[in-house]
Write a structure and sequence with these properties.
heterodimer; A: about 625 residues; mainly alpha; 5 strands; B: alpha+beta; five-stranded mixed β-sheet; 7 helices; 12 strands; about 20% strand
C-alpha cells in the first residue's frame, strides 16, 4: 500500500462505508439515489398518463391523482433534477480542477445523508397515502391549514427543508472547491466550462433557496402555530407565497438547466475535436443567465391580475433570456461547423437530441414569457409541454449524454453503445410523441392538473397518443437501467481517456484512486490533455501522511497554502439522523425544534472533536509550506 | 365539439390568436434556420486536428455576433407585438355589462347586479351574455385560488381570496362556449366547468326576464310535497330558491335550476335521472364535493326532483 493509499483509502466494512468522506463515493451514492427517485417519480407520471389515456377513467381517484402529480413534480425538481446535477459536479469538479477532495468532505457526506433521509421520508408518506396533494408549487390557501388539514403539507414543507439544506451544502462545496482548490496554472480563464456552469448554478442556489425556505417556513408556522402570513382574512396575503415561491422557482429552472449547458460544453468539443468556439462568450452567457433568472419570476403570475406595465417589464426580461441561451447554441454550432467530422457515439447523440428538443422548448418559452399571449397558454397543457421540452430536452438529454460520457470514468467500464442507441432513439421518439400533442391539447382548452376529462371535450385521441409516447419513454428508461447494470458488471473495460477528451478528469485512471491523482498535474491551457507537453509540471511537497490539499488563489490559481482536510467520520451520518429526527418532529410539534437540537448539538461536538492520532501525525510531519514545482517535463514523467 | 384558444368567438380571443400565429410563424422560421445550420455543421467535412484552434475562429465569432444581433431584433419585435396586443384588450369599456363571479370549491356563483334588488339575478355555472356587447366580469373567490377560462372568448384570470380581479368578455356570434377552472383548486378542479351562452339581445332579454321571476308555485301535489321536503330537510340549509323560505347561500341558487343545461358545474347533464343520482350521493359523482349524501327515501327524492324540475 502506497502512503497515499494508506492516507486516503476508506476502512473496509460497514463503518468505513458509513464514514466515508471520499467525494467520489459520496457523489456516486448521490447519483444512484437521485436516479432511483427519478425512476419512482417517472413511474408516477406513467400512472398519470394511464389515468388520462381515456376520458372518464377510474384507474385512480382525484385524491390519488393529486398526490401523484404533486409528488411527481416535487420529486423531479427537489429529489432528482437539482441534486443529480450537484452530485455529478461533486464527483467531477475535484477531478476537473486537479485536487483530491471537495473543500468540506464531512459536510459533503452530511449533505448526502440528509438528502437521502428527506427523500425517503417523502416517498414513505406518499406510499402511506398521506403525500402532499397541492402540487409541487403548493399554492396557499389550498395548502393552508383551512383547506389542507392533516399533515400532508407539513411533510411537503419539511421535504423542502431537507433538500434545500442539502442543496445549499452542495453549492458551498462547489463554489469553494472551484474557487480555492484549482491546480496551479488553472486560472479562472482556463476553468472548464462545466465548472463555470456549476459555479453559476451554485450561486443561484445560494440566492434562490433561502426564498423557498422562507416561504415554506411561513407555511409551516401558519399551519402549526397559527401565524397568518398567507391568510387574507387576518391581513395576510395569498400572493405573498407566489412571489416567494417563484422568486426561487424560476431560478430553479436555470439551476437545473445551466449545469446541462456545462455538460454540453464538455461533451460537444470532445466530439468536434476542437476547442470550443467563444469560451469567453459562453462564460458570459452562463453568468448572464444566472443574473437574469432572478428577474423573471412574475411570468408565473401573469394571470393573477397584475398591473399591465409591470407585466410588460417582466415580459421583456423573460424574453431577454433567450439572448444568452441563443448565444450558447450559436457557439456550439460554430464549434461543430469548424471542427472535425463527428462520430455519433451515444453521448453525442444525446447532445444532438438536446438541440432538436430544447430549441422548441425555448421558443415556446418566448410565447409563455409574452404576457398577453400567456393569458391563453397559462396553466394549460401547453405549459406542461413547454416545461418538459425545456427540462427533459434541456437538462435530461444532456444529463444522459453525460452519463454515457463519464460512466467509464466512474466505473472503469464503457456503457454499451448498441443499447445506448436504443436508449436514445426510444427516448427521443417517445418524448416527442408524449409531449408534442400537449401543446395542441393546451390550445384546445385542457387545463393542467385535471384527473379526468369528459368524452365531450374531444381530447381523448391526443391524450391516448401522449400515453403511448410515455410508454415508449418507459421502455427507453428500462433499456438504460439494464445497460447501466450490465455494463457496470461486465461492460467493456475503459481506458483512462476513452473519448480522447481534453479535461483533467481524464488524466487519472478509470475509476480514479481514492486520492484522485498519484501526482497532481498542473495545467497550461484550457484543454490540458490536448497539449503536447502535458503535464507542464506536477505539484510536489504536499504531505502524504495526512489528507492534504493545495489551496490556491481565486483568480490566478497561484498556490496559497496547504489545507489539511478532515478524514472519514461516522459523525456526519449520525448528525444527519439527528437532524432528520428534528425535521420530522417539527411536522408534529413545534417542541421538536428546541428538543431536537440537543442530539444535533451532541453529534456536531463529536464531528468536530479533534483526534489525538491526527494531531500526533501533524506534529510529526510539521506541514511545510507548499511548493509549486518548476515547469520541468522531468517532474511530470 | 372542439373549442379552444384558436377557435375564437370574440374580439379578445381573436387578438390573442392573431398574436399566437405571429409568434408561431416567427419562431418556426427561427427553428428551421437554427436546425439548418446545425445539420449543415454536422454534415460538413472539416479536418481540424484535436486541440488546434482553426484559423476561422475569428470569422466564427463574427457570425455568432451577427446571429445574436438578429436574435435581439426578433425578440424586440415579438415583445412589442405582445405589448400592443395587450393594450388592445386591457380594459372593457365603461358601458360594459357587469357580472360578478364568485368561485367556490367547485362551482361558479354568477350574479348580475342591479341597483334594484328585485332585478338582481343569481345563478350558477352558466353565464348568459348578449352577443356583441362587452361584459366586465368581476372576479372574486370564496375559498382558494381559482381561474376563470373560456378559451374561445378570452384568456384566463385568477380569482384570489383577498383580491378583486376583472376580465372582459365579448362574443361576436351566438353559441355555447365551454370554460373550465384553470388554477388547481383541490379534488374537483377537473369538474369545475362553466359555460357561456352567447345569445342575440332579444333572447338574452327573454332569459333575463325569466330569471328575474321568483320560483313558480308547485303545479301539482307531488311537486308541492317535493318543495315541503326541500324546505324541511337539509337542502334549504345551503340552497336558496327565491320566492320561498330557502335563502341560504352556501350552495348554488336553485331558483331556476331547471333552466340550466348541466348540474354540479358540468359534471352531469341536467335531467331528472341525473338530478336524482346527484342528490342521492353527490360524493360518488364528485368525490370531495361539499354536498353530502342525502337521507331521503326513494319517493321523497322523486318528489324533490319533480319540484326542482319545475323551477325553470
Amino acid at each position: 500500500m502506497t502512503p497515499l493509499e494508506a492516507t486516503w483509502n476508506d476502512r473496509p466494512g460497514l463503518m468505513g462505508w458509513l464514514a466515508t468522506t471520499d467525494h467520489k463515493r459520496v457523489a456516486q451514492r448521490y447519483i444512484v439515489t437521485t436516479l432511483v427517485f427519478f425512476a419512482l417519480a417517472g413511474l408516477m407520471a406513467a400512472v398519470m398518463r394511464a389515468q388520462l389515456a381515456q376520458p372518464d377513467n377510474h384507474l385512480v381517484g382525484p385524491d390519488r391523482y393529486d398526490q401523484l402529480f404533486s409528488m411527481h413534480g416535487t420529486a423531479m425538481m427537489f429529489l432528482f433534477a437539482v441534486p443529480v446535477m450537484e452530485a455529478v459536479a461533486l464527483y467531477l469538479i475535484p477531478l476537473m480542477v486537479g485536487t483530491r477532495n471537495v473543500a468540506f468532505p464531512r459536510l459533503n457526506a452530511y449533505g448526502y445523508w440528509l438528502f437521502l433521509f428527506g427523500g425517503l421520508m417523502s416517498f414513505t408518506v406518499f406510499f402511506l397515502n398521506i403525500g402532499p396533494e397541492a402540487g409541487w408549487f403548493s399554492y396557499v390557501p389550498l395548502a393552508g391549514p383551512q383547506y389542507s388539514p392533516g399533515k400532508r403539507q407539513d411533510f411537503y414543507a419539511q421535504l423542502v427543508t431537507f433538500t434545500e439544506v442539502a442543496a445549499l451544502i452542495g453549492a458551498i462545496q462547489i463554489i469553494v472547491t472551484a474557487f480555492k482548490m484549482r491546480t496551479p496554472g488553472m486560472t479562472l480563464a482556463r476553468m472548464p466550462l462545466f465548472v463555470w456552469a456549476m459555479v453559476a448554478t451554485a450561486f443561484m442556489i445560494l440566492f434562490a433557496m433561502p426564498s423557498v425556505m422562507l416561504a415554506t417556513t411561513f407555511l409551516i408556522t401558519d399551519r402549526m402555530v397559527s401565524t397568518q402570513f398567507y391568510n387574507p382574512a387576518e391581513g395576510g396575503d395569498a400572493l405573498l407565497w407566489q412571489h416567494l415561491f417563484w422568486f426561487f422557482g424560476h431560478p430553479e429552472v436555470y439551476i437545473i438547466f445551466v449545469p446541462a449547458l456545462g455538460m454540453i460544453s464538455e461533451i460537444l468539443p470532445t466530439f468536434a475535436r476542437r476547442k470550443v468556439v467563444g469560451y469567453a462568450a459562453l462564460v458570459i452567457a452562463l453568468v448572464t443567465i444566472s443574473f437574469l433568472s432572478f428577474g423573471l419570476w412574475v411570468h408565473h403570475m401573469f394571470v393573477t391580475g397584475l398591473p399591465p406595465l409591470g407585466m410588460s417589464f417582466f415580459t421583456a426580461a423573460s424574453i431577454m433570456i433567450a439572448l444568452p441561451t441563443g448565444l450558447q447554441i450559436f457557439c456550439w454550432i460554430a464549434t461543430l461547423a469548424t471542427g472535425a467530422r463527428v462520430t455519433f457515439a451515444t453521448p453525442f447523440l444525446f447532445v444532438i437530441g438536446f438541440f432538436f428538443i430544447f430549441v422548441i422548448g425555448g421558443l415556446t418559452g418566448i410565447m409563455l414569457g409574452a404576457s398577453t399571449l400567456d393569458q391563453q397558454l397559462h396553466d394549460s397543457y401547453f405549459v406542461v409541454a413547454h416545461l418538459h421540452y425545456v427540462l427533459i430536452g434541456g437538462a435530461v438529454f444532456p444529463l444522459f449524454g453525460a452519463f454515457y460520457f463519464w460512466f467509464p470514468k466512474l466505473t472503469g467500464r464503457l456503457l454499451s453503445e448498441r443499447a445506448g442507441r436504443w436508449n436514445f432513439w426510444l427516448f427521443f421518439i417517445g418524448f416527442n410523441v408524449a409531449f408534442f400533442p400537449m401543446h395542441i391539447l393546451g390550445l384546445e382548452g385542457m387545463p393542467r392538473r385535471i384527473y379526468t376529462y369528459s368524452e365531450a371535450s374531444g381530447w381523448q385521441g391526443l391524450n391516448l397518443l401522449s400515453t403511448l409516447g410515455a410508454l415508449t419513454i418507459a421502455a427507453s428508461m428500462l433499456v438504460f437501467g439494464v445497460n447501466v447494470l450490465r455494463s457496470w458488471r461486465r461492460g467493456q473495460a475503459a481506458p483512462d481517456n476513452p473519448w480522447r477528451a481534453s479535461g483533467l478528469e481524464w488524466a487519472t485512471s478509470s475509476p480514479p484512486p481514492s486520492y484522485n491523482f498519484a501526482e497532481l498535474p498542473t495545467v497550461a491551457s484550457r484543454t490540458p490533455l490536448w497539449d503536447a507537453d502535458f503535464p507542464p509540471a506536477t505539484v510536489t511537497g504536499l504531505p502524504e501522511k495526512v489528507r492534504s490539499a493545495l489551496v490556491t488563489h481565486v483568480h490566478d490559481a497561484e498556490p496559497d497554502h496547504v489545507e489539511i482536510l478532515p478524514g472519514p467520520s461516522v459523525w456526519p451520518f449520525l448528525a444527519a439522523i439527528a437532524t432528520t429526527l428534528m425535521f420530522i418532529g417539527t411536522v408534529f410539534t413545534p417542541w421538536a425544534l428546541p428538543i431536537g437540537s440537543i442530539p444535533i448539538a451532541i453529534t456536531l461536538i463529536g464531528w468536530f472533536w479533534p483526534s489525538a492520532d491526527e494531531a500526533e501525525t501533524l506534529r510529526e510531519i510539521e506541514v511545510p509550506p507548499p511548493e509549486h514545482a518548476g515547469a520541468s517535463p522531468e517532474a511530470a514523467a | 365539439m372542439m373549442q379552444g384558444a384558436l377557435d375564437t368567438a370574440g374580439p379578445f380571443a381573436q387578438h390573442i390568436a392573431g398574436l399566437f400565429w405571429t409568434f408561431v410563424a416567427v419562431t418556426a422560421v427561427v427553428y428551421l434556420v437554427v436546425m439548418g445550420f446545425l445539420i449543415h455543421a454536422l454534415r460538413r467535412r472539416s479536418r481540424a486536428a484535436a486541440g488546434e484552434a482553426p484559423a476561422d475562429t475569428a470569422k466564427s465569432l463574427r457570425v455568432i455576433g451577427g446571429a445574436v444581433i438578429a436574435t435581439a431584433v426578433v425578440l424586440v419585435g415579438l415583445a412589442l407585438s405582445d405589448f400592443f396586443a395587450g393594450r388592445a384588450l386591457a380594459r372593457p369599456p365603461a358601458d360594459a355589462m357587469r357580472v360578478q363571479i364568485t368561485a367556490h370549491q367547485w362551482w361558479w356563483e354568477i350574479e348580475y347586479p342591479d341597483a334594484n334588488p328585485s332585478l338582481r339575478i343569481r345563478t350558477a355555472n352558466e353565464l348568459h351574455i348578449p352577443v356583441g356587447k362587452p361584459v366586465a366580469l368581476e372576479l372574486i373567490s370564496d375559498d382558494v385560488i381559482h381561474s376563470f377560462w373560456v378559451p374561445s372568448l378570452n384568456g384566463k384570470r385568477d380569482l384570489i381570496p383577498g383580491y378583486a380581479n376583472s376580465l372582459a368578455l365579448q362574443a361576436s356570434r351566438p353559441g355555447v362556449y365551454q370554460g373550465k377552472c384553470a388554477e388547481f383548486c383541490g379534488l374537483q378542479h377537473a369538474q369545475m366547468n362553466v359555460t357561456v351562452h352567447a345569445e342575440d339581445p332579444q333572447r338574452f332579454a327573454t332569459w333575463q326576464a325569466s330569471q328575474r321571476r321568483p320560483a313558480p308555485d308547485p303545479a301539482d301535489a307531488v311537486a308541492a310535497r317535493g318543495r315541503d321536503i326541500f324546505m324541511n330537510s337539509t337542502c334549504a340549509q345551503c340552497h336558496a330558491v327565491q320566492g320561498t323560505d330557502a335563502g341560504a347561500t352556501l350552495g348554488p341558487d336553485l331558483t331556476h335550476v331547471a333552466s340550466r343545461s348541466t348540474l354540479a358545474a358540468g359534471a352531469l347533464p341536467n335531467n331528472p335521472q341525473a338530478m336524482a343520482s346527484w342528490i342521492r350521493n353527490p360524493p360518488a359523482i364528485k368525490p370531495g364535493t361539499r354536498m353530502p349524501a342525502s337521507q331521503l327515501s326513494g319517493d321523497e327524492l322523486a318528489a324533490v326532483v319533480t319540484w326542482l324540475g319545475s323551477l325553470r
